């Protein structure tokens, strides 16, 4: 077993008391953590219709604290909802299920909205006063209903929406067609990885010469789901001047805490594109005055410390860093980091095809705990007192156990 300790900052004691990358977001290579012949149930998770009903109930019972709004539609016409609570001048934007087989984030957001919309506790009141929390739960609902990573959209749908793309030499590189991915069949029902469809130029218009692209190049906003998130982000920029914090809730394969035989409960990251202020990030130089890697690290530390505070031998102690030194400008996190948001990636253990609803309660609690660590740190300002250099002391992720 490992030994971890809470990473400290000037006032972290008070805090603790109060995209997936193409390399790591796959099955564990040792092949022993799940049965490939087993169908894992996800019935314990909230489906789209249940989520809509729950959101409407939360709003109705909140006495005006929670505002629910339809902010867009998926490719198949399902409404995409925004739930907003709080009146503070610091903005925290959180999305879940950009990949439809990654479910725990939605459960955590519903629980948080229920609490913040109904509780008159000092904590809830303080959060509502100090921040504006904007959530986009289950923002890729077509994928969620199909229990798969990609949305439900063909390249022909894209060309219909953007006729200029008929001249593209190939469809987008993140187009899933005529293949099986994560035990889900895209033959005859293709889709896109929406989390590679973002662009730091929030006004970008798709051009045929930019296709098919690669993972190290920006996306195009060709999917209605990414367009919706972009539009929400831009409206918040107009209203508040900036989006202070953006958090994206994901799942990954089943991995280990480096140097141990402990399964990772969740991985964190602040690192999605090279720093525009460095030679490696020179291609992003136009965004160098916006980018705040230090603040992103501090936000990640706030989540990490909150989880560590639950106890050394707790599964919530098994938190690692996600793969670092990435260049993924087509992700929501990469694009919004370049636009000045402090960014945090949550990568929870196991996707629906490899874990189903097993460990649901534990994993949802891990997400909630990390989110409240960040939110409380933003509310009281303690997050800005954390030593960003301690981010690199968070344990690394390993593919196999240490024997």
UniProtKB/TrEMBL annotation:
Keywords tagged on the record: Hydrolase, Metalloprotease, Protease, Signal, Zinc
Protein origin, superkingdom: Bacteria
Q: Which cofactor does it need?
A: Zn(2+)
The record's comment on protein family reads: Belongs to the peptidase M14 family.
Q: What GO biological process terms does the UniProt entry carry, in alphabetical order?
A: proteolysis
GO cellular component labels: extracellular space
Bilayer-crossing regions: none
This protein is called: Peptidase M14
PANTHER family (UniProt xref): PROTEASE FAMILY M14 CARBOXYPEPTIDASE A,B, SLL0236 PROTEIN
Pfam families xrefs: Peptidase_M14
InterPro entries, sorted:
Peptidase_M14
Q: Listed GO molecular functions? A: metallocarboxypeptidase activity; zinc ion binding
Query: Mind telling me which SMART domains this protein's record contains?
Result: Zn_pept
User: Could you say which residues form the signal peptide?
Assistant: 1-25
List the residue ranges forming a coiled coil, or say none: none
Q: Which SUPFAM superfamilies match?
A: Zn-dependent exopeptidases
Residue ranges constituting the Peptidase M14 domain according to the UniProt record: 44-403
